[in-house]
Amino acid sequence: MLKTPTRLSHQLVYQFDTETIDMLIQKYYSFDASVIREIFGRKLNSRSRKDLDDLSEETGVPLRSCRRQFDNAKRVFKTVEEMSGRLVDNIQTHFCLKEDLAKAYAAIVFITNNRFETGKKKLNYLTFEDFAVCANHMISNWSYSSEDCQNHEDMDVDMDRDFLMDLREVKVLMEREYAEEHRSLMLRVLQPTVREKVLTEMDNNFRSVSKAIINIASGLNHSKESRDIFIDVFEKLIEPWVQMSWSKSDAYHFLNAFKDTALQLDLFRTSPKLVKIWERFMSTFNPLVLQMYPKT
What is the pTM of this model? Predict the structure, then answer.
């Protein structure tokens, strides 16, 4: 009966009070972050289920528990993947989960549905929580149920295709005249807030970093580039910054200045549409990069 929690309160076999029913449901659908972190990169099918022995050995979680967690993730995914409406609301309605747990399952559904690459060795340092935070940012701002979505399909599991297509327009920022002005504006803003060494590196690497961010944005309308967003962010931004000993604070100042100073260009002043596209992208991209930034 826990497979269909909404029926629990109506069954007559066991006499449970409301609090006990709620406790049973939350316990049954709870999971080990280490197990779900590994399930992320797998298809939720029978072949993956057969491989759970290895997962149990890796995580130290009993096989029976791994199977329950896998089956729950698959059940939630299959139930809500085609539904309209907010993912979190749909999960809460059909599985009676508290909001925090429903948000965690929403992240599982979103990442599984969009087939994001999470299993690369370079991404092993990222936890389930890291991916869940990133996924929920993307759900809020890049999916069909985002407030900025023009053709409101009210569906959280997919990213807004029109928005992804519109992101190609930001490639204009790579044109030399705009790139140079953008760099100058950004360095002026950053001068009082970052160390001289870092400021010099930001100056020297501006073109390559700008190109990386814009290529990630404009490539999201292609499924391959979209799936690789986490590895692209790591390889093209985080890895070089860490090698230059940038702190998370340095990355924060750079990303915020990069976002805000672009809006001062004449290019944006004359195009309200481009402003909306840019802000919608960067308001999620920046927190995503910072969430992925190594803690030490």
Answer: 0.91
